[in-house]
Amino acid sequence: MSVSSGRLPSSIALVLGMHRSGSSAVTRVLSYLGYALPKTLIPGNLSNRRGHWESRPIARLNDDYLSAADLVWSDWVSGLLPRMRSAVMRDYEADIRAHVIDEFPGRQPAVLKDPRICRLMPRYRGALERSGPLHAVIPVRNPLEVISSLMQRNAMSEANAGLIWLRYHLDAVEGSEGLPRAFLAYEKLLDAPEETLAKVEATLDIAYPVPLHQALDDIRRHLDPALRSHRRSVEEVIEHNLTRGWISDTYSALRLLTEDPASKRPLETLARIRREVVAAEPMLSHIIGGYDRRCTSLERRVAALTAATELRAEQVRLLRSNLREGAVAAPSQTATPSPTQSPGAAGQAPERAPEPAPEPAPEQAKQA
After folding, report:
1. Three-state secondary structure call for residue 368
2. Which of 35, 74, 98, 366 has the greatest count of CB atoms below 10 A from its CB?
């Protein structure tokens, strides 16, 4: 457990976004609007060239707590989170507070983002809510786009990626209930940043530390719509075999909340779906676990067959190369014509001498 005597930021904007849902873009945009970023950033990489804009120590802290609950970031089940001991939860909340104080020195408003926080909101509220204004911004992106991105980046199954998308959003909505919050459509942020961010400001009933019109040029330069990969339509979500049902209903409710975050009907829908998902956890985890194990077994067999095929292809290539070298060397190994052969007979088989006539039999000789 860490102990810090410093002070928390004057206010904190929590970006509660699922992995690959645009949370990095939202966090960077809020930093242009005057919210402080953590001092120890996770650097950008091939999957997120423009940066993650999240704290490495805080991400590690969250991973440790998930591990204590027998979970990793890519799990969608509850694990031991509902049954963690009170002392462990108190220590974790103290660690959250200490890490936030250390990562955000000074009293400037701060933006805090780590997708894992979606699963850990009760502890974050316990650590931060009583010390100053706390509000949430929840990015919403088409689930099929997120699923495709996760499958490409993390080589996970489509079903597991879909359930992660579902659980992160359901937990983010439940965990932020009662806080000032705004739901933000990722595609609208890219296409119409000024209108989208003005609506977030009005919904949260705040004034950005840096006025929107002053930051807009930087924001537009950062938000490149070409970076949005795996584009899918709303209709595809409704019709897709995997997403039809819980996921499409959740996405529809979230889209309604981007227009009216206080609307009761979509919130009731999300609460119902979360209850159903939690109740179905034992059966679903058994089914998905068996499916993933079969997929892993098949992937290993494919890898072994691919390696064997590549080895055979290399052997064939070497044999063909040896045959070509032998064909080139063959003319130099032919015999030199002898002096008794005519020049035109070189390399040709010598003519066979005529065979002598057979001698007559004795009886035939007497008659002769």
Report:
1. coil
2. 35
